């Protein structure tokens, strides 16, 4: 079963990756097991985002860079604004990485 | 809502931990490693600010063995703690009549049972004798049980089983050590068998050529078994240590020359998460996509380092990017890289107007984590 490794770059994912790296270095875990953990994290994170989150966000900004490679879109926005019911965040520069949602259903 | 984000994160942590528990047990890592993983993960998240310091969970999900059900003799007290260690009374029923008879060890029991059958006049049944003798848990030997008296002292404690197992352990230990020793022999013998395979592999094309000396080539063909011996020394236990050591000098040389599009491509693949701070537009595949092939666009920046590329004029493509990026990052905190990780449903463009629909994303903006189910983006290029 393939997973999107995208969410490993988030804070929660990076914390998990660092923890697993330390434990593998200290030989508390085998690398295979660490990979299994990360794959399970991918699945759990995807499920949580699908089922537990219900907010809608609007993004507007100037597109500085766009890239589409290996079915992954990468945008770099300048002077963007993120809006939702409880959110209004202007940011000077933001990177958006998006994987194809259709690949998940395969 | 920030609280919802933390709740989602905690729920993800719990979900992951519970689902990999079986894997941990199968791999033999154990509950302690799992607990350590969870603790360290949460600590890092608290340090990073992803979740608040006081983690509130709805219910502690701990796998505790349920208290034994057959405890009718002891009054069932109300608040039973989860960590109450079962006492001997709870685990082992106090009735002494049931347990000692049922041990199925033929060696030790045959003596027990055979002796009372002889003088059958004295006792109604051998079992009654055993009961009588065993009730004397102090070890007083009964008149019928003199020969097996050493066993008598042990029987009430149920230690006979241990005697047998100790012997068994020794046997298994010896067996395993013998097995280990034999494994060494098998390794060599299997290596010997592998010899038969090598000439067949070498003959067709000499695919493992020894090019570290001109004379070696002739040696290869004329004395294949010598080469096989040299190859064979490294093969059985330590993999291809000696074999690859011969090949590497060859491969090392041609590997350096044609790599003109990036000096450290391999290292970029190893450390994919580092690369966002210096955004190099000309090498798209290295930083973002982990599996992207080496980009076909030749990058002028690393080419400046190559001695062979001095003839071409530098394109100076990176000047603007670097300046812009540096200016922007002076304003922001160096640690917070505003980032959105999501899935896209549709990305369209009309002239310079881009529209996209995203879903199931994590946003990290202004040092905050925000999750969304759907997002609409409208960008002007």
Characterise this structure.
Helices cover 34% and strands 39% of the residues of chain A. Chain A has 2 helices and 3 strands, in the order ααβββ. A 3-stranded antiparallel sheet of chain A has the order 1-2-3, with no helix packed on it. In chain A, a hairpin with a 2-residue loop joins strand 1 (56-69) and strand 2 (72-84). In chain A, helix 1 runs antiparallel to helix 2. With 381 residues, chain B is mainly alpha-helical. Chain B has a 3-stranded antiparallel sheet, with no helix packed on it. The chains are: A alpha+beta (106), B mainly alpha (381). At the A-B interface, helix 1, helix 2, strand 1, strand 2 and strand 3 of A face helix 1, helix 2, strand 1, strand 2 and strand 3 of B. Strand 3 of chain A pairs parallel with strand 1 (339-350) of chain B, so a sheet runs across the interface.
Task: Give the topology.
The complex is a heterodimer of chains A (106) and B (381).
Chain A: H1 11-25, H2 31-51, E1 56-69, E2 72-84, E3 87-100
Antiparallel strand pairs in A: 1-2, 2-3
Chain B: H1 2-27, H2 30-48, H3 88-91, H4 106-117, H5 126-135, H6 149-154, H7 160-195, H8 197-205, H9 214-222, H10 224-234, H11 241-256, H12 265-270, H13 284-287, H14 300-303, H15 318-331, E1 339-350, E2 353-365, E3 368-380
Antiparallel strand pairs in B: 1-2, 2-3
Helix pairs in contact in B: 1-2, 4-5, 9-10
Care to give the gist of this entry?
The complex is a heterodimer of chains A (106) and B (381). Helix content of chain A is 34%, strand content 39%. Chain A is α+β, with helices and mostly antiparallel strands and 106 residues long.
| Shape assignment of chain B | extended
As residue ranges, the low-confidence spans of chain A are none
What's the main sheet of chain B like?
3 strands, antiparallel
DSSP E strands of chain A, number: 3
Mean pLDDT of chain B: 61
Radius of gyration of chain B, rounded?
Answer: 37 Å
Level of helix content of chain A? Answer: 25-40%
């Amino acid at each position: 079963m393939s997973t999107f490794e995208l969410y490993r770059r988030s804070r929660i994912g990076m914390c998990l990756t660092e923890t697993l790296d330390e434990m593998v270095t200290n030989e508390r875990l085998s690398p295979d097991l660490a990979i299994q953990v990360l794959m399970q994290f991918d699945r759990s994170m995807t499920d949580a985002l699908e089922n537990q989150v219900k907010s809608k966000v609007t993004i507007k900004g100037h597109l500085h860079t766009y890239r589409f490679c290996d079915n992954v879109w990468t945008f770099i926005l300048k002077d963007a604004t993120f809006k939702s019911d409880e959110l209004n965040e202007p940011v000077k520069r933001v990177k958006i990485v998006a994987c194809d949602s259709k690949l998940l259903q395969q | 809502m920030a609280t919802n984000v933390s709740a989602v994160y905690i729920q993800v942590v719990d979900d992951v931990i519970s689902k990999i528990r079986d894997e941990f047990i199968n791999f033999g890592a154990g509950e302690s490693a799992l607990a350590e993983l969870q603790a360290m993960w949460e600590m890092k998240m608290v340090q990073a600010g992803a979740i608040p310091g006081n983690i509130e969970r709805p219910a502690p999900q701990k796998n505790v063995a349920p208290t034994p059900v057959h405890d009718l003799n002891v009054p069932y007290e109300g608040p039973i703690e989860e960590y109450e260690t079962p006492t001997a009374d709870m685990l082992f029923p106090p009735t002494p009549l049931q347990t000692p008879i049922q041990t199925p060890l033929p060696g030790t029991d045959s003596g027990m049972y055979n002796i009372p059958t002889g003088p059958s006049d004295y006792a109604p049944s051998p079992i009654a004798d055993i009961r009588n003798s065993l009730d004397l848990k102090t070890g007083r030997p009964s008149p019928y049980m003199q020969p097996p008296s050493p066993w008598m002292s042990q029987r009430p404690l149920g230690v006979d089983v241990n005697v047998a197992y100790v012997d068994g352990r020794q046997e298994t230990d010896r067996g395993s050590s013998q097995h280990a020793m034999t494994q060494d022999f098998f390794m060599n013998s299997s290596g010997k068998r592998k010899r038969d395979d090598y000439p067949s592999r070498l003959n067709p094309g000499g695919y493992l050529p020894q090019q570290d000396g001109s004379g070696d080539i002739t040696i290869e063909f004329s004395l294949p078994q010598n080469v096989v011996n040299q190859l064979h020394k490294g093969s059985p236990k330590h993999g291809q240590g000696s074999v690859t050591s011969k090949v590497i000098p060859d491969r090392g040389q041609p590997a350096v020359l044609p790599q003109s599009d990036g000096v450290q491509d391999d290292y970029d693949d190893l450390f994919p998460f580092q690369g966002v701070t210096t955004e190099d537009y000309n090498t798209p595949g290295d930083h973002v996509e982990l599996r992207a092939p080496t980009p076909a666009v030749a990058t002028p920046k690393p080419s400046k380092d190559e001695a062979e590329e001095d003839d071409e004029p530098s394109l100076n493509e990176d000047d603007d990017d670097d300046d812009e990026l540096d200016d922007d990052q002076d304003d922001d905190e160096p640690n917070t890289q505003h980032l959105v990780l999501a899935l896209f449903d549709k990305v369209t463009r009309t002239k310079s107007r881009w529209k996209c629909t995203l879903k199931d994303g994590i946003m990290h903006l202004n040092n905050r984590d925000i999750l969304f189910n759907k997002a609409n983006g409208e960008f002007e290029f």
